[in-house]
Design brief:
Layout (H helix, E strand, L loop, with lengths): L23 E3 L14 E5 L10 H8 L17 E7 L2 E6 L9 H12 L5 E6 L12 H9 L5
Parallel strand pairs: 2-3, 4-5
Antiparallel strand pairs: 1-2, 3-4
InterPro entries: Fe-S_Maturation_MIP18 (IPR052339), FSCA_dom_sf (IPR034904), MIP18-like (IPR002744)
Protein name: MIP18 family-like domain-containing protein
């Protein structure tokens, strides 16, 4: 008796489609301040940038030179910075203001550009209104600064 040989072609192996993605990794976030809030979300990206990504924590430090003209405290310690993303020397910020009707948006924007000009080549600011800003977002350093200015906080 002759064995019958199986001549059916083998099933092709299943392969997943190849999708090219830009990977992002979140860095550990700073612990909440004593007042309980975070100072913005920091995200590194490792795209095809020709230069190393700028350290978002350096950006936050530089932005402490930007003082909110109405309250006299820097925008980082006021909790106005919700997110910092870098890609090479490009900076993207998610920020809010103490009020959506703030007349000094341009002054704050100009201050950010000047404060970060040694770190990045361009800045993109996404103004966000949710969640709304509130005094609970102010860091302990910001609270100390406000108290020194005579605010009862």
């Amino acid at each position: 008796m002759t064995e019958k040989k199986d001549t059916t072609p083998p099933e092709p192996e299943a392969t997943a489609p190849v999708v090219e993605t830009l990977s992002t990794t979140s860095t550990p976030q700073p612990p909440p301040t004593e007042a309980g809030e975070h100072i913005g979300e920091v995200i590194y990206t490792d795209g095809d940038s020709p230069v190393d990504d700028v350290d978002p924590y350096l950006v936050l430090e530089a932005m402490k030179d930007v003082i909110d003209p109405e309250l006299g405290v820097n925008i980082v310690d006021l909790g106005l910075v919700y997110g910092v993303t870098t890609n090479g020397r490009h900076l993207h910020l998610d920020m809010t203001l103490t009020s959506p009707a703030c007349p000094l948006t341009d002054a704050i924007t100009d201050g950010i550009i000047i404060a970060t000009e040694d770190l990045v080549d361009d800045v993109d600011i996404n103004w966000v209104w949710l969640p709304p800003w509130g005094p609970e977002r102010i860091t302990e350093d910001g609270r100390d600064d406000l108290r020194a200015l005579g605010f009862n906080i």
